[in-house]
Amino acid sequence: MNKVLLEKHDGYAIVTLNRPDEMNALSRELRAHFVTAFAECARDEAIRVVILTGRGRAFCAGFDLKELASSGTDASEEADNSMARAMESFKGPIIGAVNGHAITGGFEMALACDVLIASDKARFADTHARVGILPGWGLSQKLPRLIGISRAKEIAFTGSPVFARQAYEWGLVNHVVPENELMPRAIAMAEEMCRCVPEILARYKPLIDEGFCKPLDEALRWEEALSIDSARQAMAHLIAQRREQVISQGRREKE
Q1: pLDDT tens figures, 121-143
Q2: What are phi and psi of 235, to 5 degrees?
Q3: Percentage of the chain with pLDDT > 90?
Q4: DSSP secondary-structure letter at 138?
Q5: How many other CB atoms sit within 10 Å of the CB of residue 225?
Q6: 76: which DSSP letter?
Q7: 236: pLDDT strictly greater than 80
Q8: How far is it, in rounded angstroms, from Cα 82 to Cα 225?
Q9: Is 70 exposed, middle or buried (0-12, 13-18, 19+ CB in 10 A)?
Q10: Beta bridge partners of residue 184, listed in sequence order
Q11: How many helices (H) and strands (E) does the chain have?
Q12: Cα–Cα distance between 158 and 160 in angstroms, integer?
């Protein structure tokens, strides 16, 4: 059985972790299948958005500790960044549809997404300090920037779960929805993203991510330069046409 399922739709794909009986723990096999699935999404130019979710009651419970304990090696062989690199190789937006527990490595995977939608059954926890290893996929750096340093330290130093509503209040997730509405909401968002101009959607993500790492004055100059370059490549009549389409859509949504 494939440990990661890949479904392709019109403009987007759904990547589903598929070890429900093991809470989608990150076994070696699952990690290999995950890398393969994201590599396929990165190669396919028709896929502009990816939805990442888990099957069953968990999004992902982190590394498979039973497999790790039986390996007879130190943990360094398991702590590679292949999954994070695979997600980075996909240039479009990644929507995390967090259906349940997102623990430690699963928490890091969620933070590697661009937008998070959580089921009301979702919970997040960082147990790195409890199991005796430091994070290596960006958790210690991304989380403080997202929710503030003191809240991030509370999560890291206690290992206590953060439930969906609190995660929303702290700015960790964008939306919290009932369990049965999670995938429809994620799909609707993916379809909205797919209405964007494909080449601009792919360039917008690094514009935000890379600019966020720069001082504001430098980021503003960088954005201006890229905007001028983009405008040189754009046809005025196409921009006007697309603007009218956006306005028309907005009018229909108000009716």
Answers
A1: 999 999 999 988 899 889 999 99
A2: -95, 130
A3: 73
A4: S
A5: 10
A6: G
A7: no
A8: 33
A9: exposed
A10: none
A11: 12, 10
A12: 5
